[in-house]
Write a structure and sequence with these properties.
The chain is built from 13 helices and 29 strands. It is of the alpha+beta class. The strands form 6 sheets. Strands 1, 2, 3, 9, 10, 11, 12, 20 and 21 form a 9-stranded mixed β-sheet that branches. A 7-stranded mixed β-sheet has the order 7-6-15-16-17-14-18. Helix 1 links the parallel strand 2 (14-26) and strand 3. The radius of gyration is 24 Å and the shape is globular. Bound molecules: flavin-adenine dinucleotide. Flavin-adenine dinucleotide is lined by residues 26-32, 49-52, 56, 60-64, 144-145, 180-182, 186, 205, 207, 248, 289, 308-309, 316, 319-323, 325. One of its GO terms (biological process) is 3-(3-hydroxy)phenylpropionate catabolic process. InterPro entries: FAD-bd, FAD/NAD-bd_sf, PheA/TfdB_FAD_monoxygenase.
Length: 550
């Protein structure tokens, strides 16, 4: 950065005058900061602008899933995060008369991580933020994005001091701009992109965080779940981090709703249902949010792309808002990396929306279905079936998630396609050279070919070998057999996968999704050819690189 000058305004903060970078990100919420760290880890110069002077110190999300944790693993922060969060081992839905309507045990997601975690958002954001800054992410706080102009060569993002919106400007010249600026996204509106309402009535949600004087105390508050009462759903989590419990009161909006939820007495009434009283601790946050189910009609406008709540919003019943945003970041970052390196033209970026949009909407609809089971009026408005909340009717968070839409993934209509394709790849523990760990802890981020037997070079033609080289594709032989030259399948999870699917190889993309699988090792060359076709039909340039976009 150069030519700094001081702007007027509270605290006389310093805003740089002109900045050049590869990617500018508007919004330093959980999704913007994760995208920033992923892109910086790939070697790009990333600048983030955030309109507030400090990161928001109150949690919104209380849950994230194993897929999110795998992205944290890629960033090298999963173990640190693991110390702060708590596995969610069980979920139950109970009625106001304490009848258990549904109960689930939450286990391993097959991603190498647990299916669900409860967390205190500011603590986890501290870790992502620190990692991003270590990787070179530059963050300009108290800077509001006010204008965006695109040219053939890049994007000009104009920001102003949030305390002096009529004051001097800072111009950020970037190759790409990401709008990670939340549900009321300025970036989306500036691009003239409308939001589609998916048809669920707006819900008002009172989020209460209760901090214990003695967090070790035993209270009649289940691990996690929903308490269902007439027109109210109460979401609860005992361990949102190690010191705090979360209780959320979600109610269909009518005229009296807001006043009712704003009354502090309401918060204590609901806390009391779980045995939480003023002499045991304090309410550290008591805020009302409104939820809508929406999706942006386009996720890309040239060099400007939307991620996180800027692209989609959901009702909170499945705890998937931030998870979806972090999937966006993982999906988009490897594609932007390829474009910035000149490995692909911008056509590749169209696959970001085509893959992610239907996936995000699929999960939003699952959350809507969950809400509709307990709120008849919501079911009617969303044109969904109102049903009893019974075990078998429960959408299963995780197992039933849709595959990603069409893009750099083997066509789902291909007769050889299997359900594992277009979904997160298996990751399990392996052993090698005296060490036992999750497989990806031994590998570099990027493309991987996981196989039951070795794939010798002699089996591949020149094109296939150069594809492997250009992608930096890592060949990973995993077997239960003893031997020094492969990864030992310690728990047999890979063998179980190979046997259950009838496949002996699977190709994993940099965002951990399975591109495709092969029935035998002899079919691996065909799988590589299919990958090559998929990449080249979406803008990948094999052989000579494009003039780099730096
Ligand atoms: C009560 C509640 C409970 C939830 N529970 C869960 C859960 O359990 N699990 C889950 O996965 N999700 C949950 N969610 C959803 C989750 O919090 C959101 O999906 C997530 O915060 C979206 O992250 P984001 O980074 O996209 O946007 P945000 O967190 O909204 O961040 C956007 C950032 O952009 C900044 N910004 C906006 N405009 C500008 C501008 N013009 N210039 C500069 N900066 C700007 C904002 O200040 C903000 O910091 C919950 C949400 C709420 C409210």
């Amino acid at each position: 950065m150069s030519h700094q000058h001081t702007l007027a305004g509270a605290g006389a903060r310093v805003l740089p005058e002109n900045v050049h970078c590869d990617v500018a990100i508007v919004g330093y919420g959980p999704v913007g900061m994760t995208a920033a760290a992923l892109l910086a880890a790939a070697g790009h110069r990333v600048v983030v602008v955030e309109r507030f002077p400090q990161r928001y110190d109150k949690p919104r999300a209380g849950h994230f899933d194993g897929e999110t944790m795998r992205t944290f693993q890629q960033l090298g922060i999963a173990r640190e995060v693991e110390l702060l969060v708590r596995r969610m081992n069980s979920y139950e839905a109970v009625s106001s008369t304490n009848e258990v309507l549904a109960a689930l045990k939450d286990g391993d997601a097959g991603s190498g991580w647990h299916k669900s975690y409860l967390f205190h958002q500011p603590e986890v954001e501290d870790v992502i933020d620190a990692r991003g800054r270590d990787l070179g992410v530059e963050v300009i706080m108290n800077a509001t994005a006010v204008d965006i102009a695109q040219s053939g060569h890049g994007v000009r993002l104009v920001v102003r001091d949030s305390d002096d919106l009529d004051g001097a400007e800072c111009t950020i010249e970037a190759q790409f701009v990401l709008g990670a600026d939340g549900s009321n996204s300025f970036v989306r509106q500036n691009a003239g992109i409308a939001k589609q309402d998916l048809g669920f009535p707006a819900l008002a949600d009172l989020a209460i965080d209760f901090e214990y004087d003695d967090p070790d105390v035993e209270v009649p508050l289940g691990e996690s779940g929903h308490l269902i009462e007439d027109d109210v759903i109460v979401t609860f989590g005992r361990w949102t981090g190690g010191r705090i419990s979360r209780v959320e009161v979600c109610k269909l909006g009518d005229e009296g709703t807001r006043a009712y939820l704003e009354d502090e007495g309401t918060a204590w009434t609901f806390l009391a249902k779980f045995g939480l009283k003023p002499d045991m601790g304090r309410i550290v946050r008591n805020s009302i949010y409104t939820f809508e189910c929406t999706v942006a009609e386009r996720w890309r406008d040239g060099r400007v792309l939307l991620i996180g709540d800027a692209a989609h919003t959901t009702v909170p019943f499945m705890g998937q808002g931030v998870c979806a945003g972090i999937r966006d970041a993982a999906n988009l970052s490897w594609k932007l990396d390829a474009v910035l390196r000149g490995q692909a033209d911008q056509t590749l970026l169209d696959t970001y929306e085509s893959e992610r949009s239907s996936h995000a909407v699929g999960i939003i609809r699952m959350a809507m279905a969950m809400g509709s089971m307990v709120i008849p009026a919501a079911a009617a408005a969303a044109d969904l079936q109102h049903g009893q909340l019974q075990g078998s009717d429960m959408p299963d968070p995780g197992a039933a998630f849709p595959r990603i839409g069409a893009g750099v993934v083997r066509n789902g209509d291909d007769p050889a396609a299997i359900p594992a394709e277009g979904r997160p790849a298996l990751q399990a523990r392996v052993g090698r050279e005296g060490r036992v760990d999750l497989l990806e802890e031994f590998l570099q981020p990027g493309w991987k070919l996981i196989t039951r037997h070795p794939v010798p070079d002699s089996m591949l033609d020149e094109d296939q070998r150069s594809l492997i080289e250009e992608l930096g594709l890592q060949r990973v032989h995993v077997s239960r057999a003893a031997g020094p030259n492969h990864y030992v399948d310690i728990d047999g999870d890979y063998e179980t996968w190979f046997q259950a699917t009838g496949r002996r190889a699977f190709l994993v993309r940099p965002d951990h999704y399975v591109f495709g699988a092969a029935a035998t090792i002899e079919d691996v060359p065909d799988l590589l050819d299919t990958l090559k076709d998929a990449l080249t039909s979406h803008g990948w340039v094999l052989g000579d690189r494009l003039a780099t976009q730096h």
